[in-house]
Amino acid sequence: MLEPSCGDGVFVEALAKASPRAKFCFTGFELLDEEATKARQRCLAVPQFESRIRNQDFLDFAISRILTGQTDFDCAVGNPPFIRYQYLPEESQRKAEAVFKLLHLPFTKHTNAWVPFVLAAVAMLKPGGRLGMILPSEIIHVMHPQSLRTYLGEVCSRLLVIDPEELWFDGTLQGAVILFAEKKHQTGDHCDGVGIVRVSGRSFLSEEPSRLFNDTARINGKTVEGKWTRALLTIAERSLVDSLSEHPEVHRFEDIAKVDVGIVTGANKFFLVPDDTVSRYGLARFVHPMFGRSEHCPGVIYDGYQHAQNARIGKPTNFVWITAPKGGLSKKVLEYIELGEKEKLHTRYKCRIRKPWYTVPSVYATEVCMLKRANDTPRLILNELSAYTTDTAYRINTKTAVPEQLVYCFLNALTALSAELEGRHYGGGVIELVPSEIEKLLVPLPKRLRPNMQQLDKLVRKEIAQVVLAQQSKHVLGELGVSPADQKRLLLAWLRLKNRRQRASEEDTNEQDAA
Ligand SMILES: C[S@@+](CC[C@H](N)C(=O)[O-])C[C@H]1O[C@@H](n2cnc3c(N)ncnc32)[C@H](O)[C@@H]1O
């Protein structure tokens, strides 16, 4: 048994308790002397094991073993270090990258220390060998471990993730999961794919892992390639999503619209100002309406009325876009620019790479916008005022769809569910989508549907997301012929994934459904 980062040896002690009669040949690695000494002491208490604690960098050992193709371990366990690549010492960064290279996998600087640990541990397993590790839950849904997911899909015959409702480690925002993997016996063997078991409390610990493996539905080897979020769906939910994705009136977002980032000012405090700043510095000639936060647009329409309301309560609704050279500017405007320079804004990276620093580039508005982050579900906004948006929002140009139709139809349970499957979330539970994820969303656009934008705007302002999505699903998905039972199935799947992201319990899903 291998433990690549054994710390003070709690795992070897636990192993001896769990299997008192078993005989293990245990090799643990630990970088810190003090921890390695503690681990050695723990090993002395389990003389039935042949244990060796190596006080050295696991990655050095792993790199030499991968180079020589040695696969000596029957199993690997552990809780590898969670450290973002950028915070690793340079030497460790190089070693981490080497593991990817040796396994012919694409490397990204967004990776984290735990990823090369798992890659290397799996690489060193014998055919049929098994791994069980505690890992951050981001293995399921963020982009950076894609090389690891792909590798596991290629070399393993089965994969299982234990996904707890609770946070297992105090003081962490990030959830942890347990990954179980079994390496293929032969390269050409079939991969059963990955299954995810949602657990509550610790009772799963008394279950036979083999039963959990056998009883959990899996997404197959082919789909293991992408994010693993699809494994959070039941078989019925997955086949419903798959069949709807084939419907002629359901489109991939990229086929009907183009996503572009919002305006990058480099200094929002200077470029986004309330009305009183405009009058104090005589900026009226140079300002344009702008919004960038969801509270600036609580509905789905951004119009003159909403803009005036935001301005009245002192929100920074004006975008300062000074396009004239300094010679043509009034004293007051020059004073405003000097104010920014006094605060050294012109030396900030985004500002100093353009000339003059106060003329923001790539300024244009689109008829449709989308805020990058959302609490419950992403929505599109019909930008009737042609307001500009900062980079907290995306600018969306429709290709084939009519803007009203796109904004209206975007709110439904199928699109909301596909956002949960494609998007990412961090500690706070807010969903975020990057353009490549938005492009994959499924959007139903029934041709015969006549959108009632005013009604939808009112509904979104008044009701919680569940109610909005239920009603919209009736209109949009109903028009496609999706039965009320299937609408509900999609809605419940969305609710379950949303609650998982927000760390609400399974009971909340049931209660919210009943409501
Ligand atoms: C998250 S702790 C886990 C310790 C132990 N398995 C447990 O669960 O209590 C990670 C351990 O990995 C060690 N570590 C970090 N980088 C290492 C490396 N390159 N080689 C060996 N050990 C390392 C750290 O010193 C730390 O003790």
Descriptors:
binds S-adenosylmethionine, alpha/beta, globular, 39% helix, 515 residues
Question: Could you please describe the fold and organization of this structure?
Answer:
It contains 22 helices and 23 strands. A 6-stranded mixed β-sheet has the order 4-5-7-6-8-9, with helices on one face. Helix 1 (10-18) links the parallel strand 1 (2-3) and strand 2 (25-29). The longest helix is centred in the C-terminal third of the chain and has 18 residues, at 484-501. The chain is globular and about 85 Å long. The chain starts with a strand and ends with a helix. The model has no long low-confidence stretch (mean pLDDT 93). It binds S-adenosylmethionine. Residues 5-7, 10-11, 29-32, 35, 57-59, 78-79, 81 line the site of S-adenosylmethionine.
